[in-house]
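Reopening closed ticket. The problem is back. First fold of the pair:
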Amino acid sequence: MLDSLSFLWQKCDVGVRLLKVYGDTPCPVLPEDIDGEPLTEIGAYCFADKPPVAGGTMTPCACTDASRLHPICGNFVESVRLPDAVHLLDSAAFYNCRQLQRVEIGPGIDALGSDLFTNCRSLACISVRCAPDAPTGLRKLLGSISADVEVEFLDAQGTVTAKLFYPEYFEYLDENTPAHIFNHSIEGEGYRYRQCFRDGIVQFTEYDADFPQACIGESAENLCHIALGRLRWPFALSAEARARYSEFLTGHLLDACKPLIAARDLEGLRFLRGLDGLLPEEMTKVAEACGAAGFGPGAALFVAGRHTSRRKTYSFDDL
């Protein structure tokens, strides 16, 4: 894929600053180095639909059809994989990338500009290539995303080792007009979840401890998203938290299954089907929802074993 990309870049204090990417893929995988220098910075408005700054150097592309190359920016971008050496994302780097769904990063991001993901309304996932208990720049990155977003940690083989869902939150400034005093208020449990870090490391115990409070104000859909992610990838999950999440999912089975049905996630449904304490009437609702969506394998999963068969007994009156 790198052969089909070209880059506009400039030297920075350490390594290279990327100004623009050209190619024909909506999912570019950026190289570890450009012209022998490590790629360490993503420049301002790099993926925004805006002309690049002057003074950059253009790399040649191995692609034989140069007519296929165009700026990978704006609504064309769907996902971006950044190399490990990147430590800075400059202001508005993904401004107005409305179709951007996923960004994959290394653990070393430590500096962010402003308005980084403004109007990135489809952004659903941040993937981090490191162990879940390693220090990262994730807290800073989450601070620039107030909307719902999922974080997944990937090992060296690209396998998911942990998933955390961070719900949306809102910040308000209310003016006390006569006194010209502004009161800062925050609504939504997403802000509380984003504080569960220490020295750049996710504190899973604190994250799990926030769930009872989240149950007061968050939607059942968001709560199911949190619970299911922790149970399917139970990194540092205590027995107490496991029981709490399981109890919630069994009590909100249809809410938990709806997004999985829409995504045709049979493995997710199979996981939920394996929880203890599922009620037959709730399983029937899930089977019906699968049927209505035309998802036969999912329906079959919740129909199978729903009724417990009993051996018929006979008395002398039957003879």
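Second fold of the pair, where the issue appears:
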Amino acid sequence: MPTLTTYVLSAPPHRLPLAPHFGREGIGYEEADERWPSDSLFAALVAQAALLEGVSSSDVPAFARAFHEGEPPLLHSSLFPMVGGLPLLPRPLMMLNIPDVEYRRAIGKGFKKLRYLSPALFRAVCAGEPIDGPIIMMQKGAVWITPAEARSLTGPWARAAGETEEAFHARLTSTCIWKRHPVPHVSVDRSSSASAIFEVGRVVYAEGSGLTLLVQYNDQTWRERFELLLTLLSESGIGGKRGIGYGAFSWTRGPDLSFPDHGSRQVLLSRYLPTPAEIHLLRAPGSAYDLVTVGGWFFSAGSPSGRRSPITLVTEGSVMATNGLPLRGRIADVRPPQDGPQHPVYRAGLALSVPAAAPEAIQ
């Protein structure tokens, strides 16, 4: 039974709100995402380790080197939204088993909006169990949680004294967990002093909400090291536009999450780059996945920054038919083919996944 350590990322003390800029490839500064992918987080951790260790431009940081030798010391997820202390997990690319035909018809096209499930609903979907109770749909249908989990919410998301259950559910349904805000900026040409207005998008999380990170420690001695790098990241910021104050956070440990062993498939909580021996899983019956091609810029402590080579990854929530075997994935060197730095530029596709039932086991 996989057990994952959770970390809750929220706004720094005395500084509200949590407001990062998670850009997307091929889209201007004005757009931002509400999650941060695992490959970007790994690259940020490697950069922090390189600065901390003071390596030369041709060396591989010890943090990254350990992930090439045998079993990785840890695996981590992407950063997903969190509300009232409740982590939200990506919707698996599996059929949702809702026996109530009328309820299913009432949801209708709302299934297309669904992006995140609460842990209880995520476990039920992975097990192929029926979802036969009421569902609270938040964030305009992008988030589903159960009434029992709603009663566990903390902070401003908790049920107020004297508030009826109907009013409580209605408040949760109508209150946004996050909002996207474009912020205007001005650039000034150095020679002509001509000005140009542009917008930078940021995602603003409501009070009591934020981000959650899940980590599987294969080597417990790495916990302290990982948390040190996470603290350094909290001060330098995550995502883009950190120089203007975006992306700073504070973190705490949350309750561990456990996932039962259900069967022969795996649901990804991170992005995934198959090893050559795993490529055939993409064609295996029972696999269902989406792909994303990522490029962007790299940071180098000893060389000028530049554009990294694009790479295609399997996205979070994808389902891989593995016959009960764990997924591994790999790390790719995405140095540009020309005028790149001497040291590797890593993009991680190591798989953090949890078990899921085979298609024939779903009722």
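Update: turned out to be a display glitch only; the data is intact. The mean pLDDT is 86. The radius of gyration is 21 Å. Please close again.
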